[in-house]
Design goal:
The chain is mainly alpha-helical. Helix content is 62%, strand content 6%.
Amino acid sequence: EFAADLKANHRTMGDSLRMLKIVMLVHWLGDMHCPKHIRYPEEQTLGYYKVKWGNRSVRYHDVWDGVFFDGLHPWGLVDCAEMLDDCTKSEIKAITTGDVYDWGKDMAKSARGVNEFKEGDKIDTHLFRNKYRDLAEHSVRNAGYRLAALLNDIFK
């Protein structure tokens, strides 16, 4: 609804409202690409329970909200975005085909396996990084391409 409203009315709406809607789209597109922001019928917690991440006790949700990715790419988001922006135009077209509902389904299918960890589990950070690095990087990359496609469509 925010995207549709922006597309139809961005030229006539006030700056504050336009900015709010853009900020919310950026937030929601990013959130929908976070594996622990997806609810499955058999797992409704969103990871709001503690696990042992190396020597730290953290919420499993927070592992996916930044702890894991920050450890993969500690040099900053701009450099990370440069590095992950490696798709051809045809690959980007495939990633951005569909709508936000299709993108959500794609993410839910991709992220299904991350629910293997439960309350109190000790996570071997090295093994976790090896197993989920591609998912994390593809999720962030796809979110960026999809957000750009959505904004380009709105403001063309």
